[in-house]
Amino acid sequence: MATTPRIIGIVGSYRKHGTIDTAVTAVLDSARAAGAETQKLYLQDQQIEFCTNCRACLQQPGAQRGECVLHDDMAALLDQLEQADALVLGAPVNFGNVNALTQRFIERCVCYGYWPWGQPAPTMRIPVATKKAVLVSSSAAPGLIARWMTSAMGTLKQLAEMLSAKPIGTLWVGLIDPQDATLPSRVQRQAQKLGQQLATA
């Protein structure tokens, strides 16, 4: 008997009900309509401290993520993401890359690497992707220009890889209006298709 896929969406925007929130929700709604169990988490609701680059988590051997010396909501958040079958990772562009809220979360995901002192470079604890991901971003610039002139999608791809997920598609919303989070019909169709793909094996 097939199990119901569990899909978690991460909203890295500062604005609830804004463009990123709306786009992540559209993907999750489509996945849920296709039979998946979905959940949405807002990074702004989590207490996530700044990584101090002490590298303590990187010294611990084994396949499990390293334990951070900071005690906040990060460990519980990562526990939830590890239980998911697929992820929707959403963050807006600020100053040419994902915003600081999302970047803070990304830096704390360093615990998925193993880099003991004296080793020239880190290695990933789980080098093979075990889940799927959809990457979502937005900008005030036209989508085609922003996609290639910013580093947001590359950064979100790196985040997906740290979380053992392989991106199966991207969703970019350009020319956003902060006063209107309505998605263009083309983006709505893309979101529906990507959500269906996440919900299927």
Give me a quick take on this structure.
This protein is α/β, with parallel strands linked by helices and 201 residues long.
Could you characterize the architecture of this molecule?
By secondary structure, the chain is of the alpha/beta class. The chain has a single domain, classed as Flavodoxin domain (Rossmann fold, 3-Layer(aba) Sandwich), CATH 3.40.50. 33% of the residues lie in helices and 21% in strands. The strands form 3 sheets. The protein has a 5-stranded parallel beta sheet, sandwiched between helices. Strand 1 (6-11), helix 1 and strand 2 form a beta-alpha-beta unit.
Spans of at least 5 consecutive residues with low confidence: none
Q: Going by CATH, what is the homologous superfamily?
A: Flavodoxin domain
Q: Which fold name is given in CATH as the topology?
A: Rossmann fold
Oligomeric form: single chain
- How is the largest sheet built, in terms of strand order? 2-1-3-8-9
What does the radius of gyration come to?
17 Å
Please bin the fraction of helical residues.
25-40%
Count of domains: 1
